[in-house]
Amino acid sequence: MTDTPALRLQPPPFATDAALTAVWDALPQARVVGGAVRDAVAGRPVADIDLATPLPPDAATAALVAAGLRVVPTGLAHGTITAVAEARGFEITTLRHDVETDGRHAVVAFTSDWRADALRRDFTINALSMARDGAIFDYFGGVADLHDGRVRFVGDADARIREDYLRILRFFRFQARYGLGSPDPGTIAALRAGVPGLARLSVERIWGELSRILAAPDPVAAIRLMHDLGILRAVAPELSAPERLAGLRAAGAPHDPILRLAAMLTGDALSFAERLKLSNQERDRLVRLGSVPSPDPSADNAALRRLLADFSRTDLIDRTWLNGDPAGPGLRRRLAALPIPVFPLEGRDVLALGIAPGLRVGALLRDVRQWWLAGGCVADHPAANAELARRACTPG
Ligand code: ATP
Ligand code: MG
Fold first, then answer.
1. In this structure, how many other beta carbons lie within 10 angstroms of the beta carbon of residue 106?
2. pTM over 0.90, yes/no
3. Distances in Å between the alpha carbon of 353 and those of 132, 364, 390?
4. How many other C-beta atoms are found inside a 10 Å radius of the C-beta of residue 234?
5. Which of 60, 96, 115, 362 has an alpha carbon within 20 to 30 A of 139's alpha carbon?
6. In this predicted model, what pLDDT tens digit does every residue of 204-228 receive, in sequence order?
7. If you measure from the C-alpha of residue 249 to the centroid of ligand 1, how many angstroms do you get, rounded to a whole number?
């Protein structure tokens, strides 16, 4: 079969990447595949570089080792090894074609046919491959689709979704990032028809995709379509209609998936985080966003200092985005500019007054801190110490 490149990128992308060059020296026939080619063609920043090779894993390993590279058999069962060059890992997968699918996992067989490997990939924009000289192989019109903002399944959308229902959510990951305008009616019908199959997906996969969708620069249209097709309700019924997300976007809030999630969440944050198995860090932040007090735009600096003494600046600023107050920008500027007030006393200041270690030490510190907060967090060490001494002398 002739394998003619659709175009050639000049100069070849990654030509100055010494680590990738070392891999290519060992495996000259290997091509970069998937997201890295898509993003190189689109002129977008490339995150990680994955490769494919017609060589079986043992032959690819031998060639890499002979070239002095370390190889980790990361996914040998499905033909993936990781080559380590200059402390970076490159996943290299032997070309595969699907033998059998079950709605989530596929049985695959190795092949040396690049087109067959491209055929099992989900979208035309993800099915590109690129040789070392910058030649782009595009079997299904992915370059044109990328250019026109079309996220299109390789082959029949219905069939591809029935092979793997995760592709419904993956569709929205890429639609949010690359899609221009709405998908064609056939694709929409296939996405809708696949909704019952979403019940098979693990919560880890659901959150993995949802968080990527929410991290896109502008996920509003994608989320709206997920809502309209009943997909959002199927995977995350706790999330409200997308209006609040649109509000956040219109206000210019950061492209932050947890902030956006907090804006859409209707129910209890902790239950949601536990059900979808968010990471501890994501969970804690989501819970804090639900409980941090709302800074009032008309508050004076003393009131803002009081908040900054007790809550993190980032959480308070996040809260102002969620509140959607038109006076938000001014409030955020003030919250960003005020120094974080630090209560000037410590336990040793109490002990220095001759008070024995024990419960009274903490109680006195708490009392003086309340006094300090009430005064707008401006009392310095001598002033706070004087107040402490006054209170320490008064019985009770
Ligand atoms: P991103 O920039 O979001 O990482 P990516 O294209 O690298 O995008 P990955 O999820 O890392 O996406 O997958 C890498 C490639 O593997 C995809 O580009 C696609 O070709 C293929 N792929 C991954 N998952 C599937 C799937 N469920 N069905 C078909 N092909 C898939
Ligand atoms: Mg990737």
1. 16
2. yes
3. 75, 12, 11
4. 18
5. 60
6. 999 999 999 999 999 999 999 999 9
7. 27
pLDDT, tens digit, 9 for 90 and up, residues 154-192? 999 999 999 999 999 999 999 999 999 999 999 999 999
- How many whole angstroms separate alpha carbon 122 and alpha carbon 124? 7
Q: Which residues contact 362 (CB under 8 A, 6 or more apart)?
A: 347
Domains of the chain: 1-148 (3.30.460.10), 156-291 (1.10.3090.10), 293-337 (no CATH), 347-393 (no CATH)
The candidate with the shortest Cα–Cα distance to 339, out of 384, 285, 299, 376, is: 376
Tell me, what's the pLDDT at 1?
55
Residue with CA closest to ligand 1 atom 11: 35
CA angle 283, 45, 182 (to 5 degrees): 75
Report the separation in Å between the CA atom of 25 and the middle of ligand 1, taken as the mean of its atom positions.
Answer: 25
Determine the distance from the C-alpha atom of residue 303 to the mean position of all C-alpha atoms in its chain, rounded to a whole number. Answer: 34
The residue nearest atom 17 of ligand 1, judged by CA position, is: 34
